[in-house]
Amino acid sequence: MFTETHLKPHERFCIPNYHVYRTDRYPGRKGGTAVAIRKGVPHTDVDLAPLVSIEATGVYIPIGNNEVSLAAVYRSPSRTWNDAEIMKLLSARNKAVLAGDLNAKNPFWNSAV
């Protein structure tokens, strides 16, 4: 999973032997997310509803009798935190893994804000 890819729609990005799914920030600078899945690994790409406070790219991977949602997530520090959008990503399937740069601040890990 990749965050802050800085890719634009006209830029090509590929990794040999991987399927790459990406969400580019357009228009705008920086940002963007991507997920790379090794060819041969069963998966389905996720068509995420438009998000306002975060950027995300996701896939579903079957593991046993479950389907796990994996999502690369980026939240710009200039955007307001929106719990509802994070919960939407987490509730997409029974099991979910979100990874990325959420620019989360909390006094618990010595953040001043």
Task: Note the main attributes of this structure.
7% helix, 113 residues, 36% strand, 1 helix, 7 strands, mainly beta, 4-stranded mixed beta sheet
What does this structure look like?
- This protein is mainly beta.
- The chain has one helix and seven strands; from the N terminus they run E-E-E-E-E-E-H-E.
- It has one helix spanning 83-90, and strands at 2-3, 18-23, 33-38, 44-45, 55-63, 66-74, 95-101.
- The strands form two sheets. It has a four-stranded mixed sheet with strand order 4-5-6-7, with no helix packed on it.
- The longest helix has 8 residues, at 83-90.
- It is globular.
- The model has no long low-confidence stretch (mean pLDDT 87).
Tell me the number of strands: 7
Main beta sheet, described?
4 strands, mixed
- Radius of gyration in whole Å, from Cα? 15 Å
Strand order in the largest sheet: 4-5-6-7
Mean pLDDT: 87
List low-pLDDT spans: none
What is the number of helices? 1
Order of helices and strands: EEEEEEHE
Shape label: globular
How much strand?
35-45%
**Class from secondary-structure proportions:** mainly beta
